[in-house]
Specification:
Elements: E1 11-15, H1 21-30, E2 33-36, H2 48-66, E3 70-75, H3 78-91, E4 94-99, H4 102-105, H5 113-122, E5 125-128, H6 131-138, E6 144-146, E7 180-183, H7 193-202, E8 207-211, E9 229-233, H8 237-246, E10 249-252, H9 262-268, E11 274-277, H10 280-285, E12 290-293, H11 297-309, H12 311-340
Parallel strand pairs: 1-2, 1-3, 3-4, 4-5, 5-6, 7-8, 7-10, 8-9, 10-11, 11-12
Length: about 350
């Protein structure tokens, strides 16, 4: 191994996507070299055999260029892990698998579990986000560790920034400062978008803004959205953070039990009240500042009304949680360094 014991080391993070908030968080917080490779369309099963080969070769080529001592790899797809494993086997580098919930929950990747176990046993560590997946990795057996998304090292948008782009206005605004519920979504079927639109119809006095590319939604969902709903479309990162910061509350839902929503993390680190799904995993992570709802119109509506009526107390609780999670991350970083027997470059956290 070329890295010095407990000395400064070089690292990289491999992700087979155009961008990933969690991957980028590790890149910035640990001083890692980004290795993003993406070909053709994402989540397209038909094109998978055509793109994984070029991505495998491009990943190896980039790793041999930068020669990192430790490589983190976003998982799935398992083929990205295979590329990193080959590099590590040939160079003596260490590798860490960052297993997203799809590894364990998605039927699409169930066939890959024997490969996951094999690569996991050889990895320096396998990081996950919740105790259920931690137990699954330990049973492989592999060295499992729960590591949350790192706090942001920079926030591109702050309300005091005079150069920040203005938020778009919604129909019916009388010129006064406008409050809104910000829905963080990708138009996946598990995100409750049809129910949220019905909630908006039932609460015409409340403005809603839904992020994400609406072209990904089934046409029937968005035929006639209520007038108090604004579909923002894809936004640059600065404008996205501005929406999170300016929202009365953030609403983000899932039907996947063992998933910690990135949108909830984004709400937490800007101290915004959160309305999210009532799952054991989300309840165990967002222990303050969140209102949990079932995926029904009536329950989501009640959650929105509760948070809007008690916004100040939810916001104060979320600010407390933000500080607590920041300390948790600092401890997890130290545990990662101990696990890998290396030291990452120091990085200043924005919040």
């Amino acid at each position: 191994m070329r890295a010095q014991q407990r000395g400064a080391t070089s690292g990289a993070f491999v992700s087979w996507v155009p961008s990933c908030g969690r991957s980028q968080g590790f890149i910035e917080a640990l001083g890692l070299e980004p290795v993003y490779t993406s070909y053709l369309r994402q989540k397209d099963i038909v094109s998978a055999p055509l793109k994984y080969g070029p991505q495998f070769i491009a990943t190896l080529r980039r790793l041999y260029q930068i020669r990192p001592d430790v490589v983190f790899v976003m998982n799935p797809p398992v083929f990205a892990v295979a590329a990193v494993y080959l590099y590590a086997a040939q160079t003596g580098a260490k590798y860490v698998m960052d297993c997203h919930s799809a590894v364990f929950e998605s039927p699409r990747w169930r066939w890959s579990l024997p490969l996951q176990r094999s690569f996991g046993r050889r990895a320096a560590g396998v990081i996950v986000t919740n105790p259920v997946h931690h137990a699954a990795v330990e049973a492989w057996p592999a060295r499992a560790m729960i590591v949350a998304d790192p706090p942001p090292t920079r926030l591109p948008c702050v309300s005091s920034n005079p150069l920040a782009p203005p938020l778009p206005r919604q129909a019916g605004n009388d010129g006064k400062e406008q409050s809104f519920v910000f829905v963080i979504a990708t138009y996946g079927r598990e995100e409750g978008i049809p129910e949220i639109l019905e909630v908006a119809r039932a609460l015409p006095q409340v403005h809603f803004r839904i992020s994400g590319d609406p072209r990904r939604a089934p046409r029937s969902w968005l035929d006639r959205p209520p007038p108090n709903v604004l579909l923002t479309g894809y936004m640059p990162l600065e404008m996205f953070w501005q929406h999170v910061q300016s929202a009365f509350a953030v609403l983000t839902l899932t039907q996947r039990e063992n998933t910690i929503l990135r949108g909830g993390w984004e709400a937490m680190f800007l101290g915004r009240p959160l309305i999210t799904s009532d799952t054991a995993t989300l309840r165990s992570y967002f222990v303050r500042g969140a209102r949990f709802v079932n995926s029904t119109v009536a329950d989501i509506k009640a959650g929105v009304e509760d948070v809007l009526a008690n916004q100040g107390s939810y916001q104060a609780e979320m600010e407390t949680l933000r500080r607590e999670k920041r300390l948790v991350w600092c401890r997890q970083r130290e545990q990662l360094e101990a696990l890998l027997d290396i030291a990452f470059p120091a990085a200043a956290l924005a919040v």
